[in-house]
Design goal:
The complex is a heterodimer of chains A (217) and B (280). Chain A is an all-alpha fold and 217 residues long. Chain A contains seven helices and no strands. The longest helix of chain A has 38 residues, at 30-67. In chain B, 51% of the residues lie in helices and 12% in strands. In chain B, β1 (56-62), α4 (68-83) and β2 form a beta-alpha-beta unit. The two termini of chain B are 19 Å apart. The chains are: A mainly alpha (217), B alpha/beta (280). Chains A and B meet through α2, α4, α5 and α7 of A and α2, α5, α6, α9 and α10 of B.
C-alpha cells in the first residue's frame, strides 16, 4: 500500500469524524446528535476489540519468549507464569454462565488478583516514602517551598493534624484552594491549548505521531 | 561515621518497619483519634442529602483494587447515604475493577436493611472499555451501551433500567477513580456538554488536582481514607474508616520524622564539613 494511501485515508477519517463531532457540539440538531451518539457507541465497541488485539499481542510476545527467542530461564519462567494466570482467569471466567460474576471467578479475583495489586501499591508507598526521605532536603528556596508545602499538606491529610494544630487547617486549605488552584489551573489551560494545537496539526497532517510511521524502503 | 551521616543514611528497611509497626497498632487496637470534617466532605454530604426524592444518581466507578483502602471507607459511607434516601442510583465502570468494587461493597452492607430492592432502587452495570469514549457514550445515551447488568442478567426486567436515558435524566454524577486527571475527563463529558455537576471519590494524593473544580463543578469530594472517615462521622454510619484513618494517622508519622531527621543529618553534615575545612 502506498505511503499516501496509508497516511491519507486514516487522516481523512480522523478529520471527518472530528469535524462531525465539532459540528454536533455547536449545532443542536437531533439528527446530528443521533449520529454522534452512534459513533460514540461504536468507539466503545472498537475499544473492546482493541483489548482483544492487545491480548493477542501480549500472548504472541510471550510465545516468542518461550519458543523462539534466546532468553534466559528467568524470562521463560515469567512467561510461563503469565500463561498460567492468563489462561486460568480466562477459563474460569468462561466456565460458568455467570461469567465474571460467578463464585469461582470472584474467588480467584478477590483472593489472588486483589491482594497482588494491593501488595504492589504498598511497595510503591514504601519506595515513595523512602524517596521523600532522601530527596526532601532543604538545599534551595525551591526545595524549601516544596518541602514545607509537602509537610503542611501531609499533616493536613492526617485526621489528627488539624485537631492538635488548629492553625494547620486554614493554612493548608489556603495553600490548596488558592496557591495550588492558581498554579494547576494555569497548567490545565496550558495543556488545553497544547492539545488544541496538537489536534490542529494532526488534522492538517503536520503531526505524524498519531498515524502509523511509514518506513521508507 | 558521624551521627549526621548516619541520619542521612538510615536503611529503608527501618523506615518501612517503623511505618508498619505504627500502622499495626490501631488496626489491632482502634484508638478513636479525633477528626475534623473538611468543607469538601460537607459539600459532598449536603449535595446528596438535598437531592429531590426520586432523583437518579449515576456512579462512574473506575477505581482500582490496588488502592482499595483509599476507596473502601468512602464507597461504603456513600452507598449507605444513598440507600438512606428516597433516591435511586446505578453504577458502571470504565475501569475494570470499578463494578467489582461496587459489588464487594454491596455484599458488605445490607441494601435490604434499608428497604432497597435491586433493579428498582439500584443497578450495577458492567465495565465498558474506551475510557473517555465510554463516559461520552454513557452520558449521551446510556441504554445504547449496555445489554446486560454486571451479573449477566437481561436489563429489560428491571424497572430502574427503563428510567435511564442520558445525562439529562440524572441528578448528579459520583465519579470514583484512581487517576489524578479524572476530573478533567469527567468535566469534559458530563459538565461541559450536559451541565451535570460531579462529586468525586479519589485517592488522597489527587485532591490538589481535583480542587481545580471545587466548588463550581464539583460541590464536594472525598479523598483517601480521611474523606471516607469524615463522611462516616457526618452521616453517622459506622464503617471501616475509623480504623484505617487511625492507621493512616500513625503510619505517616515515621515519614515526617525521617524527613526531619534527614534534614538534620544534611545540615549537620554540611556544618561538620565546613568546620573541617576551617581547621585545614
Amino acid at each position: 500500500m502506498s505511503r499516501e494511501v496509508r497516511r491519507t485515508i486514516p487522516l481523512w477519517i480522523i478529520m471527518g469524524i472530528t469535524g462531525f463531532f465539532l459540528l454536533e457540539y455547536f449545532l443542536n440538531v437531533a439528527a446530528i446528535t443521533g449520529v454522534k451518539s452512534e459513533l460514540t457507541r461504536w468507539g466503545t465497541i472498537v475499544s473492546g476489540f482493541m483489548l482483544i488485539f492487545g491480548m493477542v499481542l501480549l500472548a504472541r510476545h510471550h510465545i516468542l519468549q518461550l519458543a523462539v527467542r534466546d532468553t534466559g530461564m528467568k524470562d521463560k519462567i515469567l512467561s510461563v507464569i503469565f500463561f498460567v494466570s492468563f489462561l486460568g482467569f480466562l477459563l474460569v471466567g468462561f466456565s460458568t454462565p455467570e461469567r465474571i460474576g460467578g463464585a469461582n471467578y470472584q474467588w480467584i479475583y478477590q483472593n489472588m488478583y486483589r491482594p497482588a495489586g494491593t501488595a504492589i501499591t504498598a511497595l510503591c508507598f514504601w519506595w515513595c516514602v523512602y524517596g521523600g526521605y532522601k530527596t526532601f532536603t532543604i538545599r534551595s528556596w525551591e526545595s524549601v517551598s516544596i518541602g514545607l508545602g509537602a509537610v503542611i499538606y501531609m499533616l493536613r491529610l492526617l485526621p489528627i493534624g488539624p485537631v492538635y494544630i488548629p492553625a494547620l487547617a486554614p493554612t493548608a486549605d489556603w495553600l490548596l484552594s488558592t496557591v495550588n488552584v492558581g498554579a494547576t489551573r494555569g497548567g490545565t489551560i496550558a495543556i488545553g491549548v497544547g492539545s488544541l494545537i496538537l489536534g490542529m496539526r494532526t488534522l492538517i497532517g503536520k503531526e505524524t505521531g498519531a498515524l502509523e510511521a511509514v518506513k521508507e524502503v | 561515621m558521624s551521627i549526621y551521616k548516619k541520619l542521612r543514611e538510615i536503611p529503608d528497611g527501618y523506615l518501612g518497619l517503623l511505618s508498619i509497626l505504627f500502622m499495626l497498632i490501631p488496626v489491632l487496637y482502634p484508638l478513636g483519634l479525633p477528626i475534623e470534617i473538611s468543607e469538601p466532605t460537607k459539600g459532598f454530604y449536603n449535595t446528596l442529602m438535598n437531592l429531590p426524592e426520586g432523583s437518579i444518581v449515576c456512579i462512574d466507578a473506575s477505581g482500582g483494587f490496588a488502592s482499595w483502602d483509599e476507596f473502601h471507607a468512602s464507597m461504603v459511607a456513600t452507598l449507605k447515604v444513598l440507600f438512606s434516601r428516597p433516591i435511586k442510583w446505578f453504577a458502571w465502570g470504565y475501569g475494570y475493577d470499578g463494578p467489582v468494587m461496587v459489588d464487594v461493597v454491596l455484599k458488605e452492607i445490607n441494601p435490604q436493611g434499608f428497604g432497597k430492592q435491586y433493579g428498582s432502587d439500584y443497578l450495577v452495570l458492567p465495565y465498558v472499555s474506551g475510557e473517555e469514549m465510554a463516559v461520552a457514550a454513557v452520558a449521551s445515551d446510556t441504554k445504547s451501551v449496555f445489554t446486560s447488568d454486571f451479573y449477566g442478567n437481561s436489563l429489560s426486567q428491571y424497572a430502574l433500567w427503563n428510567e435511564l436515558g442520558s445525562a439529562d435524566d440524572y441528578a448528579i454524577v459520583i465519579t470514583i477513580s484512581g487517576s489524578c486527571l479524572n476530573m478533567d475527563q469527567e468535566t469534559r463529558q458530563w459538565y461541559t456538554i450536559h451541565g451535570k455537576k460531579l462529586l468525586e471519590i479519589n485517592m488522597a494524593c489527587c485532591s490538589p488536582m481535583s480542587m481545580n473544580y471545587y466548588p463550581s463543578v464539583m460541590p464536594g469530594g472525598l479523598w483517601g481514607v480521611k474523606g471516607g472517615t469524615e463522611l462516616e462521622v457526618l452521616s453517622r454510619f459506622a464503617g471501616p474508616g475509623a480504623r484505617l484513618s487511625d492507621a493512616q494517622n500513625l503510619g505517616l508519622m515515621p515519614f515526617i520524622l525521617f524527613l526531619i531527621l534527614g534534614n538534620i543529618g544534611y545540615f549537620g553534615g554540611r556544618f561538620m564539613e565546613k568546620e573541617e575545612e576551617k581547621r585545614q
